[in-house]
Design a protein that fits this description.
This protein has helices at residues 50-59, 72-81, 97-108, 124-130, 150-156, 179-187, 214-218, 247-253, 264-274, 277-300, 321-330, 354-367; strands spanning 37-38, 91-94, 114-117, 135-138, 161-167, 194-198, 223-228, 241-244, 304-305, 312-316, 333-334, 336-337, 347-350. With 370 residues, it is α/β, with parallel strands linked by helices. The protein folds into 2 domains: 16-48 and 278-367, Aspartate Aminotransferase, domain 1 (Alpha-Beta Complex); 50-275, Aspartate Aminotransferase, domain 2, CATH 3.40.640. The longest helix has 24 residues, at 277-300. 44% of the residues are buried. The structure holds pyridoxal-5'-phosphate. Pyridoxal-5'-phosphate (PLP) is lined by residues 42, 96-98, 122, 167, 171, 198, 200, 228, 230, 236, 241.
């Protein structure tokens, strides 16, 4: 049987283009034997939280049995991480930030409903929402600094709007939304709209006027803060993420939980990682210091880039972005072209260790001609 438009078993809105394909794995790359530096997926170049790894090793022989029936122990650890400002029950946990995002989207969107995005953005907001047959309204961030078009987004809201996706720090631009702007924006949102504030890179932000979703959630606003263990804790391969929101919205989205929501290894590793302050601080200190080092060299090479509050930098080369990616790959440097994230002509590079950053800079120097 072929999939045809008039065959009722196929849903028309489940398009092949709704499939998110992540960045390449290192084994897909031919660097001609050169050491590979993977700077393409905003991972942690220091590896994984040692405490998390220890917790995983301790559980490795316990996989024949199901995990905890609920995510309560992870919720308790998250509540402690947030200094008990947020309570058990206010978190949504799942096997990756992407899966938490999907839960939120499935809870609030459907046919006839709308969502607002602000390209350039993390593509899955649109892909997962399209799978629900919801309608996208995009209000692009404003050039040249990728600032939020507050009035544009507010004007795009109608009675069918349910979700707005904002990201701070934003992927792929690395830019952020200052607190005063968010305060004003959120105070003007109607009650039938939920704001998803994706903050998976929040640990790396150091701008004085940066804010997470926390103050808004504590004030009882319809805001959901989205987080991941992939980046700062170095657990991208494990797949664990969480969100936090008001008790009412959290309890509502939790109705979509499946049996044994979070797997044993992720549950234990997540609890351990949250207490690994040493690894967290080491990671954040490295990224904040190395960001400056990379800027210095990008300035020297005359590259156009955006200052970042995240663990990556968006670059706009004068040459074709895909061509630059291919040239760097030959030197063993993996970076990501981000036209698919709404930033045509741009390349995103993860900030890594000094060794990785130097390898990137020297490969760039070798391949790039302004
Ligand atoms: C902005 C943003 N949100 C969410 C995620 C999802 O993270 P994960 O599914 O690895 O937890 C990512 C991953 O790259 C991201 O960049």
């Amino acid at each position: 049987m072929k999939e045809t438009k008039d065959n009722p078993i196929f849903k028309a809105h489940l398009k092949p283009s709704n499939l998110y394909v992540g960045g390449k794995a290192r084994n897909e790359i031919d660097s001609g034997g050169k050491k590979i530096f993977k700077l393409s997926s905003n991972e942690n170049l220091l590896g994984s939280s040692p405490k998390a790894l220890e917790a995983i090793r301790a559980q490795i022989n316990n996989l024949s049995e199901y995990p905890d029936r609920t995510d309560k122990r992870l919720q308790i650890a998250l509540s402690a991480f947030y200094k008990h400002k947020l309570q058990v029950g206010q978190f949504l946990t799942s096997n990756s930030g992407s899966e938490v995002l999907d839960l939120i989207i499935r809870a609030f969107l459907g046919e006839g409903l709308e969502y607002i995005t602000t390209n350039p953005m993390f593509k899955p907001y649109q892909m997962f929402s399209d799978r629900m047959a919801a309608k996208q309204v995009d209000v692009r961030l404003l050039d040249p600094a990728y600032t939020l078009n507050v009035e544009g987004v507010l004007a795009a809201i109608n009675e069918n709007t349910r979700l707005i996706f904002l990201t701070s720090p934003n992927n792929p631009t690395g830019t952020y939304i200052p607190k005063a702007i968010l305060d004003n924006f959120i105070s003007r949102l109607p009650a039938h709209v939920v704001l998803v504030l994706d903050e998976v890179y929040f640990h790396f932000a150091e701008a004085k006027d940066y804010t997470t979703a926390l103050p808004y959630v504590l004030a009882g606003k319809n805001v959901i803060g989205l987080n991941s263990f992939s980046k700062t804790y170095g657990l991208a391969g494990l797949r664990l993420g969480y969100a936090y929101t008001t008790p009412t919205l959290a309890a509502y989205v939790q109705r979509l939980y499946k049996p044994f929501q979070v797997n044993t290894l992720a549950l234990e590793a997540g609890i351990a990682a949250l207490s690994d302050t040493e690894f967290l601080n080491k990671t954040v200190t490295l990224v904040q210091k190395e960001r400056l080092f990379v800027y210095e060299h990008l300035d020297r090479l005359g590259m156009k880039y955006w200052k970042s509050q995240a663990n990556f930098i968006l670059i706009k080369p004068e040459m074709d972005a895909k061509h630059l990616v291919a040239l760097l790959q030959k030197e063993g440097i993996m970076v990501r072209p981000v036209a698919g994230f709404g930033a045509p002509g741009c390349v995103r590079v993860t900030v890594g260790t000094r060794e990785a950053n130097l390898a990137f800079i020297s490969a760039l120097e070798k391949t790039y001609t302004c």
